[in-house]
Design goal:
The chain has 354 residues and is mostly beta strands. The protein folds into three domains: 24-118, Immunoglobulin-like, CATH 2.60.40; 125-265, Chondroitinase Ac, Chain A, domain 3 (Sandwich); 271-354, Type 1 dockerin domain (Orthogonal Bundle), CATH 1.10.1330.10. 12% of the residues lie in helices and 38% in strands. Strand 18 (224-228) and strand 19 form a beta hairpin. 30% of the residues are buried.
Amino acid sequence: MKIKKTLKTIAFSLFLISPVLALAFPGIPHQFYGSVKFADDKAALDGTVVEAKIGDVSIVTVPTKDGSYGYNPDLFYVTDLDSNNTRSGDEIQFFVNGLDTDSSVVFSNGKIQNLDLSLPSVNIGTSDNAVGTVVTDETVVIVPNTPTVINMGSGDLSVSLSPSGTDGTSAVINKIEKLDSGNIAILSGNNLLNAYEIKVTGNNLTISVTMKYNDSTVDENTIKPYIFDGSNWIEITSPAPTIDKVANTLTFTISSAQTPYAIFGKMAEASSTSVSSGNTSSGGGGGIVASNATTATNGTVIGDINGNSKVDKYDFALMMSDWGETEIDLAADLNNDGKVDKYDFSLLMVNWSI
């Protein structure tokens, strides 16, 4: 008798509990998987984020792997709210790193669906652009650990974009265009070595800029990067730029890119122990050397390698024949430092056609 009563009590308790349990279970989800591709049919880099939203509510996000999403272990389930199929008929929209893919699917409980996603106008990875190209209004996707890079003119400029945090992001390359001395102001006392208009908009970005330079007429120790604030050139000092004197590149980091950037350097100076300045007779033909000519201690014009009382193409040819040599008493070693290099070339240019 007691056993029957106990069983009835258990049965009644389960009857009360079972509706509560039923309400606690979610409905059967809608599962998705597929590929993710960008411009030029490039596959998504690992870490690209695929997201599903219903309305403005984010339901699920997963990273891509090997150009695809929704595979084990990162399965892509759009869950239902409860066992009453509350989301049945709702529209699901799909995004990649926050960018709308224009793909939408009606929620269906229990369905397993292949859905390939594509953003054909969006770039990812590395983009190489020919000399003279102007990049405008280009959207890019940026993932952790693999920067998105825009190269200009065979190494003339490289702009590398990385997320400033652990999550991926996207950005718009509003404009990247080469500038020259005809359309920017020149920093007083300096030579313009390279300049670009660089405009990038986006959030959570770290932007690294590498510019190429020609060091034939400047002292490499004076090369620095600058940003133009609308009125003046302001030196970029933090984080500290890095210079590669072998590759002839200068790299600096910026948090945003909304204005022209340039690198300048000062003219290489002659050795103070080997030259002096002043009015000097050229000798021989009796001509007069210009008052700003650089002269050696024996009165000859620095750069007049062949001794014809002027600095011209013949002296240039002689210098090129000795270029890189490190022998003693080379005629083209104008600053007497034991080698023929860019500093000698600078002295040649100072007195050109004298």
